Please model this.
Amino acid sequence: MGKVAVVTGASRGIGFAIARTFAAEGCSVVITGRDGAKLARSAAELRRLLPKQTSAHDKGGAQIVAEVCDVRDADSVAALFAMVKQRFGRLDVLVNNAGTAQPAVAIEQTSLEVWRAAIDTNLTGLFLCTRAALPFMQAGATIINNLSVAARTVFPNFAAYNASKHGALGFTLSLRDELIPRGIRVVALMPGATDTDLWRQFWPDAPRERMIDVESIAQAVLYAVLLPPNTNLTELVLAPTGGAL
Ligand SMILES: NC(=O)c1ccc[n+]([C@@H]2O[C@H](COP(=O)([O-])OP(=O)(O)OC[C@H]3O[C@@H](n4cnc5c(N)ncnc54)[C@H](OP(=O)(O)O)[C@@H]3O)[C@@H](O)[C@H]2O)c1
Model:
């Protein structure tokens, strides 16, 4: 495919599955996360997937780059995209995927720390990364914002997460309308319960066999990226294969 993609929060989970799919298609992929050691291991795994003719030794071929970045931090985000611009000169696909959940608690028991972690990561992070990436995204590029079904519905005892994702949907819809004249597609990705580490902190025994497999999400994202440039796909909604959780 030959595109240049940034996938935030791609050291594991949904982000890693998306990066894996892009790498297998011969894309250059920049993966980010806060844990540098984990990120380096994930990048090594992705490099093994690059098609042979575009191995890391092939100058001008696809590359996998691991960059530590905390999406809550404007300087960290600026450094990430400065590196991408310097290395590739353009960005074809931005997947704003980095996100965090919260423990299940009533609103009166929700600490400011929990509230800020959700809002800063899931909402402000989306804004910071998009703002830094846009100056070198051209017509035909795609932005995928990984929201959640929690962007439209609500889960009781998850007010911070719900609020961050509802806000992120508002941001995504504004972005979509602003970027239509520039020919940049903006897609709201809204998966239901998906089998990743995210569940460990609030429902360790969740029935994972009923959840969405990360690979299905990655394939849906690839589909959205490969559509003809003038296709105005706006949403990808995936529901758990084992019924509502
Ligand atoms: N799993 C689900 O059921 C589900 C359903 C719908 C939507 N989603 C959304 O999908 C996205 C990915 O979730 P996941 O389930 O794949 O979670 P995950 O397995 O916990 O992975 C989260 C990723 O985001 C990174 N990350 C977290 N905070 C970050 C920060 N401040 N800056 C940079 N990177 C950060 C993590 O790496 P580090 O910890 O090393 O930073 C990790 O790579 C989230 O936005 C989530 O809300 C998940």
Notes: Helices lie at 13-24, 36-47, 74-88, 112-133, 159-179, 214-226. The beta strands are 4-7, 28-33, 64-68, 91-96, 137-146, 185-191, 235-238. The domain at 4-238 is CATH 3.40.50.720 (Rossmann fold). The chain has a mean pLDDT of 95.
